[in-house]
Amino acid sequence: MKILVADDDPQIIRALTVTLRARGYDIVAAADGTAALNGAIEHHPDLVMLDLGMPNLDGVEVIHGIRGWSQVPILVVSGRTGEADKIEALDAGADDYVTKPFSIDELLARIRALTRRTLAVDEAPLITFGTVTVDLVGKQAYHGTAAEPQTVRLTPTEWAILEVLLRNPGKLITRDSLLTEVWGRHHTNDSGYLRVYLAQLRKKLEPVPAKPRYLLTESGMGYRFRPDPA
């Protein structure tokens, strides 16, 4: 399991790296907010652990940046003990909050809890909308029922885009975040790619491609997967 640890205190980075590696975790370290955001994009960690008071981008800005394209668990580890700081971080998208100083046993327990929550989501890989069923693990999509499926053939790039959207139901995924996730951070100006691939996905998956119900465009911002009402 890979953990991104972001903190501007080198002693904390060193202590957490040694402690967590001794327990079998793979650690990626970041010393400021920009490095943390870039690290999340480049290394795709299984959990992000970050401080709030970092240079370049503070922790809340990093949380917002990550939540634009990923639901990776985020554990805030901060010296800020005020209720307002905790609420701001959690409202931005953090999953849990630990205040400094902390015990290693408590920190490990929080990590285990967040990991269990993530595994529970990943154990239900089938997503259904309209007449379409998508198996994110098996990389299969089909119309109709499992007994009489009509296979939908998707290219690897179509799969990559679809998976990001489906794993974030109801959430706006910005164009830059989607381009970075699928093509890398040097292609954030290639928004024409997304229009082409989204049009192809709609032709294959939407009941009426010209009037999409599920794969929506948010003008000037990005895209959103809108599931059927519960």
Key terms:
single chain; 230 residues; alpha/beta; Rossmann fold; Arc Repressor Mutant, subunit A; five-stranded parallel beta sheet; 8 helices; 42% helix; phosphoprotein; Sig_transdc_resp-reg_receiver; WalR-like; DNA-binding; OmpR/PhoB-type_DNA-bd
Task: Write structural notes for this entry.
- The protein has helices at about 10-20, 35-45, 60-65, 85-90, 105-120, 155-165, 175-185, 190-205; strands at about 1-5, 25-30, 45-50, 75-80, 95-100, 125-130, 130-135, 140-145, 150, 170-175, 215-220, 220-225.
- It has about 230 residues and is α/β, with parallel strands linked by helices.
- The chain folds into 2 domains: about 1-120, Response regulator (Rossmann fold), CATH 3.40.50.2300; about 125-225, Winged helix-like DNA-binding domain superfamily/Winged helix DNA-binding domain (Arc Repressor Mutant, subunit A).
- Strand 4 (about 75-80), helix 4 and strand 5 form a beta-alpha-beta unit.
- The longest helix has 19 residues, at about 105-120.
- It is elongated.
- Keywords: DNA-binding, Phosphoprotein.
- This is DNA-binding response regulator.
- One of its GO terms (molecular function) is transcription cis-regulatory region binding.
Provide a brief overview of the structure.
42% of the residues lie in helices and 22% in strands. It is an alpha/beta fold. The protein has 2 domains: 2-122, 3-Layer(aba) Sandwich (Rossmann fold), CATH 3.40.50; 126-225, Orthogonal Bundle (Arc Repressor Mutant, subunit A), CATH 1.10.10.
